[in-house]
Amino acid sequence: MKKILIIALVVIIASCSSTDRKDEIKEEIKGKKKEIANLKKEISELEDELEADSTYSKESYHVPVRTKIMHTDTFKHLIEVNGSVEAINDAFISPEMNGQIKKVYIEEGDRVSKGQLLVSLNTSVTQKGIEELETALDLANTMFKKQKELWNQKIGSEIQFLQAKNGKESLEKKLETLKAQIAMAQIKAPFDGIVDEIYVQEGEMASPGYRVVQLVDLSKLKVNADLSEHYLSSIKKGDTVLVTFPAYEKIEYRVPISRTGNVVKLDNRTFTIEVKLQNKNSQLKPNIISIIHINDYVNDTAFVVPSIILKRAVNNEFFLFVAEKKGDEYIAKKTYVKTGKSFKDQTEIKSGLKKGQQVIVEGYNTVSTGTKIQIKK
């Protein structure tokens, strides 16, 4: 009996809830209808107000538009790719021999010339060896001179003369070797540039392959970029490109492509192009962001329209609206066109338009075929 009562109670509550929701929906519909009625009344009042103006009537209203008269123009398509800026001369300099840093002659930021001494190693032991050899060489020269005089006078043996000569020449070669070691201990600039970083201090040990100084020449830079293999046939060495830098809005270069890669990279199907720049006043720095603009297509007799006015039909064909004169008035007419390439906000029209036609470029969203239009100047 209790179960029956509970079930009946649930049914009653559900029924009441359903009835309440229906009442709410009915009230909401009434409110919406009232809003619609009010809007219709406001529209009617506004139209009556416009009708009072002789320049407007419901029947004679023309949609204001702006048009572009078609004539042949030059259309250029550009590829924009990010490039990596590098210094052509950028070196991490290391010594040719092991040794202790004796003296650092430069500071970071210094400009140096080719051949200028940057860092020297301790050569005291080698210098003592040179002094000893020079003393021994003096004696060997004297001995050789005397043996030569005796040999010219047919006095003494040929062996003694040759031994003196060999001793002198052997010491000379050893002296040359030690002097070469002294030169190797002098780390000099391989090219003109700026000292970007110094990695050692006086008293530390240095060895071949160990970075001592980074030297960079900012006067000559190169920019590398990777392009899709799709452009292999349209881009070649010598083509002029525009190079810009987001960090320097007023700096741009028009330079030829100095190199194109001969291998397509397997990982991303690209090839490399390279351009070289003369860096004015050393303003540009390695590794800054650069953009290379490459002109891969030009049509000197193209019809060009704003890309935004093009619409796509259900059959995927593109169309736009042109102004067509009908009697004393102009109407909008839907015209299907075949598009070419697009760049930024402009699109090339391959077919569908004629010279002198007026394409609607403003107000195109408010017209349809047959809409009366007023062309604004």
Description of the structure:
This protein is of the alpha+beta class. The protein has 2 domains: 63-88 and 219-377, Efflux pump adaptor protein, beta barrel domain (Elongation Factor Tu (Ef-tu), domain 3); 89-206, OB fold (Dihydrolipoamide Acetyltransferase, E2P) (Beta Barrel), CATH 2.40.50. 28% of the residues lie in helices and 41% in strands. The chain has 3 helices and 19 strands. It has helices spanning 2-51, 124-152, 158-184, and strands at 63-69, 73-93, 99-104, 111-112, 117-121, 186-188, 193-198, 205-206, 213-228, 240-245, 248-260, 270-278, 289-306, 311-312, 318-326, 329-343, 346-351, 358-362, 372-375. The strands form 2 sheets. The chain has a 15-stranded mixed β-sheet that branches. The protein has a 4-stranded antiparallel β-sheet with strand order 6-5-3-8. Strand 15 (318-326) and strand 16 form a beta hairpin. Helix 2 (124-152) packs antiparallel against helix 3 (158-184). Mean pLDDT is 84; it is low at 7-14.
> What structural category arises from helix and sheet content?
alpha+beta
The CATH topology assignment of the largest domain is Elongation Factor Tu (Ef-tu), domain 3
**C-alpha Rg, in Å?**
44 Å
Uncertain stretches of 5 or more adjacent residues: 7-14
Helices, by number, come to 3
CATH architecture of the largest domain: Beta Barrel
Summarize the helices and strands and which ones pair or pack.
Layout: H1 2-51, E1 63-69, E2 73-93, E3 99-104, E4 111-112, E5 117-121, H2 124-152, H3 158-184, E6 186-188, E7 193-198, E8 205-206, E9 213-228, E10 240-245, E11 248-260, E12 270-278, E13 289-306, E14 311-312, E15 318-326, E16 329-343, E17 346-351, E18 358-362, E19 372-375
Parallel strand pairs: 1-19
Antiparallel strand pairs: 1-18, 2-9, 2-13, 3-5, 3-8, 4-7, 5-6, 7-9, 9-12, 10-11, 10-13, 11-12, 13-17, 14-15, 15-16, 15-18, 16-17, 16-19
Helix pairs in contact: 2-3
